[in-house]
């Protein structure tokens, strides 16, 4: 009887909880593996190639199954398990409501066929459900949650113990699973296929697979983590780790990341020693925080604001405004640079994510869910929990949000975090010739003629007026809630 590990967003062999247990269980029998329905298709497919090679070295096959309809996934897995004579399915848990429902269904379907299924916590350092306030509730504010997270890891050091990669299959597995070894990694469906030029670009920008993740992590921890506290808010600097795509695809486990950072510190404490290391670990912990939020308040997965009293805000659905935002043509240089960075890299700096999300939901008063969706469709690191959390923060409708009356001024954000306009000049070529502080607000600071000649648009809204409009709309929505 064979054991199957179902890969989802955990595309690595190192420190993979369910894969490790599957391998432990299967020692005598071999582990055929499947991966299903990838999003962020290009990166995932490149990752699968690496995974397949790594597994083949252990005589473990990787079976890639393409399922047209998501809801067919459980039935197809049961069919494959039956075809392979497998009696035990392992998988790591995903916490979004649809995924949890799918897993519940699959456990039932497996049971009907006499197949066991184990679904395990793997994505977070501290699994959801382990941290509660003194009164037994889930924390809705990050800082006390983070203190509890740190305490919990200190008192349960095994949370940072890493699982070994799977054991090598016995030699007979090659013969036994010959058919599975012949499985090819498919091409992306035509609608999601990149042009050759883009495919090359993204391959260089975002090398795939867990070895690349480990290289990037080691380099960041050796070279940049010390300065992270100082540099992480400056979008023109390569001051952050750029590891989000690996966290989101599971080519890097959160435990491995935190442990590697901790090893560079002069203490085992997560809240002491080098400031850059502490700050970085606390950012990685945000990822855990937002996953815990999904589990405790699953309605945030259903297009609802975390704060129900924010359900009655009258959002705008102005298509021209939305298009200007997506194309980086709002007339606000920092916003436009950021949106063009997203188009160019499939990634955006965290400070800029906050600025553009605040701009669309407050200055344009567009429904934040339009922006949330656009991000998920365009980010290489799109992760439902972190994205939803980030949008909730910036639009003031989420857990532990920016208060609604504290509205970012995109011009001041630009002056503060891109003082010399380096980031703007990189991404907005029309403004490269603009000198000095006018770069932040060319039409308001005497560079309008130059900007216009270069084809840069005027601001699509006036920030002062837009701010007043947003304050009134939020207040009205809350009062009527
Ligand atoms: P680093 O600064 O090096 O941080 C290390 C890791 O910590 C990140 O890779 C990420 O896994 C985690 N992290 C850091 N900041 C946050 C945060 N605020 N929330 C949750 N996790 C965090 N992150 C995603 O991974 N996917 C998303 O879809 C996503 N959408 C976002 C949308 C908005 C509106 C906002 C404000 C933030 C969003 N973030 C998202 C969080 C953050 O912007 C990115 O994780 C970060 O920019 C990734 O770059 P990095 O790997 O260099 O981060």
From TrEMBL:
<protein>
    <submittedName>
        <fullName>Deoxyribodipyrimidine photo-lyase</fullName>
    </submittedName>
</protein>
<feature type="site" description="Electron transfer via tryptophanyl radical">
    <location>
        <position position="315"/>
    </location>
</feature>
<keyword id="KW-0285">Flavoprotein</keyword>
<keyword id="KW-0274">FAD</keyword>
<feature type="domain" description="Photolyase/cryptochrome alpha/beta">
    <location>
        <begin position="1"/>
        <end position="125"/>
    </location>
</feature>
<feature type="site" description="Electron transfer via tryptophanyl radical">
    <location>
        <position position="368"/>
    </location>
</feature>
<dbReference type="GO" id="GO:0005737">
    <property type="term" value="C:cytoplasm"/>
</dbReference>
<dbReference type="GO" id="GO:0005634">
    <property type="term" value="C:nucleus"/>
</dbReference>
<comment type="similarity">
    <text>Belongs to the DNA photolyase class-1 family.</text>
</comment>
<feature type="binding site">
    <location>
        <begin position="381"/>
        <end position="383"/>
    </location>
    <ligand>
        <name>FAD</name>
    </ligand>
</feature>
<dbReference type="GO" id="GO:0006139">
    <property type="term" value="P:nucleobase-containing compound metabolic process"/>
</dbReference>
<feature type="binding site">
    <location>
        <begin position="240"/>
        <end position="244"/>
    </location>
    <ligand>
        <name>FAD</name>
    </ligand>
</feature>
<feature type="binding site">
    <location>
        <position position="228"/>
    </location>
    <ligand>
        <name>FAD</name>
    </ligand>
</feature>
<dbReference type="GO" id="GO:0071949">
    <property type="term" value="F:FAD binding"/>
</dbReference>
<dbReference type="GO" id="GO:0006950">
    <property type="term" value="P:response to stress"/>
</dbReference>
<keyword id="KW-0157">Chromophore</keyword>
<feature type="binding site">
    <location>
        <position position="280"/>
    </location>
    <ligand>
        <name>FAD</name>
    </ligand>
</feature>
<dbReference type="GO" id="GO:0032922">
    <property type="term" value="P:circadian regulation of gene expression"/>
</dbReference>
<feature type="site" description="Electron transfer via tryptophanyl radical">
    <location>
        <position position="391"/>
    </location>
</feature>
<feature type="binding site">
    <location>
        <begin position="283"/>
        <end position="290"/>
    </location>
    <ligand>
        <name>FAD</name>
    </ligand>
</feature>
<dbReference type="GO" id="GO:0003904">
    <property type="term" value="F:deoxyribodipyrimidine photo-lyase activity"/>
</dbReference>
<dbReference type="GO" id="GO:0003677">
    <property type="term" value="F:DNA binding"/>
</dbReference>
<dbReference type="GO" id="GO:0043153">
    <property type="term" value="P:entrainment of circadian clock by photoperiod"/>
</dbReference>
């Amino acid at each position: 009887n064979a054991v199957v590990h179902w890969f989802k967003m955990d595309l690595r062999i190192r420190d993979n909880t369910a894969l490790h247990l599957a391998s432990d269980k299967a020692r005598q029998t071999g582990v055929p593996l499947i991966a299903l329905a990838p999003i962020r298709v290009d990166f995932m497919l490149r990752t699968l190639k690496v995974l397949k090679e790594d597994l083949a070295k252990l005589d473990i096959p990787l079976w890639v199954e393409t399922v047209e309809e998501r809801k067919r996934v459980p039935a197809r897995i049961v069919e494959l398990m039956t075809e392979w004579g497998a009696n035990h399915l392992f998988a790591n848990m995903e916490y979004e409501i649809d995924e949890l429902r799918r897993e519940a269904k699959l456990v039932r379907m497996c049971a009907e066929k006499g197949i066991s299924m184990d679904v395990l916590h793997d994505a977070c350092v501290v699994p959801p459900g382990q941290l509660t306030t003194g009164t037994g509730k889930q924390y809705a504010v990050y800082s006390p949650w983070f203190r509890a997270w740190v305490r919990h890891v200190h008192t349960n050091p095994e949370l940072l113990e890493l699982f070994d990669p799977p054991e090598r299959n016995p030699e007979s597995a090659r013969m036994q699973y010959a058919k599975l070894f012949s499985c090819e990694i498919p091409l992306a469906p035509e609608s999601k296929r990149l042009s050759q030029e883009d495919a090359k670009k993204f391959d260089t920008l975002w090398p795939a697979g867990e070895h690349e993740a480990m290289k990037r992590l080691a380099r960041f921890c050796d070279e940049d983590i010390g300065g992270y506290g100082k540099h992480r808010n400056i979008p023109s600097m390569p001051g952050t780790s750029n590891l989000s795509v690996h966290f989101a695809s599971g080519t890097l486990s959160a435990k491995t990341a935190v442990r590697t950072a901790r090893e560079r510190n002069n203490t085992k404490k997560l809240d002491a020693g080098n400031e850059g290391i502490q700050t970085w670990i606390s950012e990685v912990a945000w990822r855990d925080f937002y996953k815990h939020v999904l589990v405790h308040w699953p309605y945030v997965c259903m297009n609802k604001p975390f704060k129900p009293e924010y359900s009655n805000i009258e959002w705008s659905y102005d298509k021209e405004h939305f298009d200007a935002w997506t194309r980086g043509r709002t007339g606000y240089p920092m916003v436009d640079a950021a949106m063009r960075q997203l188009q160019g890299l499939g990634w955006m700096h965290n400070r800029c994510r906050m600025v553009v999300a605040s701009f669309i939901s407050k200055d344009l008063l567009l429904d934040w869910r339009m922006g949330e969706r656009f991000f998920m469709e365009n980010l290489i690191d799109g992760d439902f929990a972190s994205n939803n959390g980030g949008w909730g923060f910036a639009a003031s409708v989420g857990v532990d949000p920016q208060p609604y009356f504290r509205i970012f001024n995109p011009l001041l954000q630009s002056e503060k975090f891109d003082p010399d306009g380096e980031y703007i000049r990189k991404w907005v070529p029309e403004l490269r010739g603009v000198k000095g502080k006018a770069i932040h607000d060319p039409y308001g600071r005497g560079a309008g003629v130059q900007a216009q000649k270069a084809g840069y648009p005027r601001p699509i809204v006036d920030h002062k007026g837009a701010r007043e409009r947003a304050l009134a709309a939020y207040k009205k929505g809350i009062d009527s809630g």
